[in-house]
Task: inverse folding
């Protein structure tokens, strides 16, 4: 026959075991996040990044005359292959990790409007490339008119291909 002390110990151990199992189920908040309206790449776990095509040559963005204020007008600018690669890889790494930076949540999907003359698939993202050769880290994009554009596909890995660089035109 068991002693009262050993019976109490068994009951406590069984209760602790049951409690641990009960706490393993998802909470309401966790289930809601799966049903959110966030872009799918933001709720996926990080995927390994695979680069299918890097920038191979320098690219030039044409001068733009966006009208007043003069601060929105930009001279022609040529980006080196290394500058393009830095911006492209930063945007791709963030996307593969399901992260974004800045008020406009870069990188984000490019709506293909206007369509670009690049050899690029339907799933495209854009990420700012700065005139001062620094990598965009989420600050104000008011003085950052250019974007790198890349194609992406998701599977067991996050595959990216550099498409090109573009300059935003006048607002509206």
Result:
């Amino acid at each position: 026959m068991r002693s009262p002390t050993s019976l109490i110990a068994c009951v406590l151990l069984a209760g602790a075991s049951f409690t641990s199992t009960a706490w393993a189920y998802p909470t309401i908040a966790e289930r809601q996040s799966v049903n959110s309206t966030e872009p799918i790449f933001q709720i996926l776990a990080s995927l390994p990044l695979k680069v299918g095509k890097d920038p191979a040559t320098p690219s030039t963005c044409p001068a733009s005359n966006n009208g007043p204020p003069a601060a929105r007008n930009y001279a022609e600018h040529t980006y080196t292959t290394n500058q393009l690669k830095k911006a492209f890889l930063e945007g791709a790494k963030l996307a593969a990790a399901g992260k974004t930076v800045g008020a406009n949540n870069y990188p984000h999907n490019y709506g293909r409007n206007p369509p670009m003359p690049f050899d690029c698939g339907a799933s495209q993202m854009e990420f700012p490339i700065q005139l001062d050769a620094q990598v965009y880290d989420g600050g104000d994009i008011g003085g950052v008119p250019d974007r790198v554009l890349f194609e992406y596909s998701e599977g067991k890995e996050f595959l990216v291909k550099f498409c090109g660089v573009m300059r935003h035109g006048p607002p509206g």
